[in-house]
UniProtKB/TrEMBL annotation:
UniProt-annotated stretches for the region Disordered: 167-189
Protein name: Glycosyltransferase
rRNA processing in keyword set: no
Keyword annotations: Membrane, Transferase, Transmembrane, Transmembrane helix
Length: 189
């Protein structure tokens, strides 16, 4: 994995750092490149958890049929009523799907506390990963496993850098090619 380049300009996620500021909640309309659809047995409970616990907002809704939630750009969730004839997983049951959203280090503890305030059993874990993130894992009222993952500032001399290098992932400028968008012609149509 050495043929990559810095493409932060196409993402709303800021480069990790000690004073980084979260992007504003994004209220624009765009063609969604991807989104999550979560069937809910209780739309109001689901809306309350996602907005009060995870920091999403209701972009729009079609009463009784659909609630479009959003946080940052490209973080879209569609809540739909669960089919009453199908067995929806109980929130305490094992998650059947996982979705991850980017967050910031300064948000992880705050989001965990907000989720616990709504549902004391919703937070599964807050943990640091070998790939240099801190992750919050929660279980939503729909039984969905949600991971909010926050990149930590990269220390080229740190343990995470050594672990990544051991599996062939080197940071730009250190054995990997550092190429900007303009230099990446072979991937442009």
């Amino acid at each position: 994995m050495t043929d990559y380049y810095d493409a932060f300009e196409v993402s709303p996620v800021p480069v990790p750092g000690p004073d980084v500021v979260a992007p504003e909640l994004f209220r624009g309309i765009y063609g969604m490149p991807s989104f999550v659809t979560a069937p809910s047995a209780d739309l109001e409970a689901s809306i309350g958890f996602w907005t009060g616990g995870l920091g999403f907002f209701v972009l729009f809704s079609v009463p009784g049929r659909l609630v479009h939630l959003r946080r940052w750009m490209f973080q879209d969730v569609l809540l739909v009523p669960a089919d009453p004839t199908s067995a929806a997983p109980a929130p305490s049951a094992a998650a059947t799907s996982t979705v991850s959203f980017a967050g910031l280090l300064g948000q992880i503890d705050e989001l965990a506390e907000a989720c616990r305030t709504i549902d004391a059993d919703s937070v599964v874990a807050v943990r640091d990963t070998p790939w240099n993130t801190r992750d919050l894992e929660v279980r939503t009222p729909e039984g969905l496993r949600v991971v909010v993952t926050a990149a930590k500032p990269f220390d080229p001399a740190g343990e995470a850098a050594a672990g990544l290098a051991a599996i062939g992932i080197t940071p730009p400028g250190e054995g990997g090619r550092t190429r900007g968008r303009r230099e990446n012609r072979e991937h442009v149509r």
